[in-house]
Design goal:
eleven-stranded mixed beta sheet, Pseudouridine synthase, single chain, Structural Genomics Hypothetical 15.5 Kd Protein In mrcA-pckA Intergenic Region, Chain A, alpha+beta, 27% strand, 7 helices, 3 domains, 20% helix, four-stranded antiparallel beta sheet, 15 strands
């Protein structure tokens, strides 16, 4: 027999949905059969499966341990051992801010990928901040994505509340996100640029035009030069909208491609990837559960390769910051 006490990450969903997470290899037919036969009960009573769960509800599974193990995918902590160190900027019980390195996907593109999500889960398990058992009903994840070869701040949700609230704030643009990037060319003025973007799935590139065109989405990007060193400029960029490859393609479209960005015309000798880094996150006024973060700012140190390029090109900014 197994008893499940409904927690905050599980409340608000239907009973059958939760059971299918715990017994994810069983199928709906088995779950509904066990409900009909009272082998699974809710708060001591027969249940249909459509009941909406509340915190503290008690679910009992009158099933053999072998049966539960057979129908449950998550059994071994080693299934999540990535052996990749997570760079944590900030962490509390609900959220975690991660400095993503270059070369790591934010989320899986295919089944056998190891992404930041798997590395996050491995970190939480290794540090006993969650158990394998909890993964059956709630899986921590990331709330925003960066391209594989873009580094910097990614927000992770450790709880359902954290995941939902941070995703909501990213969607409504109440969180301010700032990037730094090195671009080809000399830029001297702070500007806000607008346009329209459309992704070409065949080339995995985006097309940007100043005027609206079929299926294109409006975009807006703000940038401010931090320092110029002749043929290159270090920019601070704020995304007003957040589309695929927006910063990379938008800057390239006005003649200033990002250094190392081969896809959008920024190829540079001895630079293997685009020098684009999600550098700073600023929290606005928040709901009650997160008021301790109100107005706080967090920064992610740039990777070694980024700083080495700036030093080679004699950017003074590089001497005042460490690398991640």
């Amino acid at each position: 027999m197994k008893t499940i006490s409904v927690n905050t990450n599980e409340a608000g969903q239907r009973l059958d949905k939760l059971l299918l997470k715990y017994l994810d290899n069983a199928g709906k037919g088995f779950v509904y059969k066990m409900l009909r036969k009272k082998n699974i009960i809710l708060n001591g009573k027969k249940a249909e499966g459509s009941e909406k769960l509340n915190v503290g509800d008690e679910i009992k599974l009158f099933l053999a341990d072998e049966t539960i193990a057979k129908f449950s995918k998550f059994n071994d902590k080693n299934d999540y051992n990535t052996n990749i160190k997570l760079s944590v900027i900030y962490e509390d019980k609900d959220i975690i801010l991660i400095n993503k390195p270059v070369g790591i996907l934010s989320q899986k593109a295919k089944g056998d990928d190891i992404s930041l999500v798997e590395i996050l889960i491995s970190y939480l398990l290794e540090n006993k901040k969650m158990s394998v058992e909890t993964l059956k009903s709630f899986k921590p994840s990331v709330c925003n994505r960066l391209d594989r070869n873009t580094s910097g701040i990614v927000i992770g949700g450790k709880s359902l509340l954290g995941l939902q609230k941070m995703s909501e704030m990213l969607k409504n643009r109440s969180l301010d996100k700032y990037y730094i990037c090195a671009v080809h060319g000399e830029m001297k003025e702070k500007k806000s640029i607008s346009g329209y973007l459309k992704k070409d799935s065949n080339t995995n590139k985006v097309i940007i035009k100043k005027e609206s065109f079929f299926d294109a989405l409006p975009i807006k990007t703000e940038y401010e030069p931090i320092e110029s060193a002749g043929k290159y400029t270090l920019l601070r960029v704020k995304l007003i909208t957040g589309r695929t490859h927006q910063i990379r393609a938008h800057l390239s479209s006005i003649g200033y491609p990002i250094v190392g960005d081969n896809k959008y015309g920024g190829k540079c000798e001895n630079v293997k990837y685009q020098l684009l880094h999600s550098y700073e996150l600023v929290f606005p006024k928040l709901m009650e559960q997160f008021n301790y973060l109100e107005g706080k700012s967090f920064t992610a140190l740039p990777p070694k390769e980024f700083k080495e390029f700036l030093r080679r090109e004699n950017f003074e900014w590089a001497h005042g910051v460490q690398e991640g």
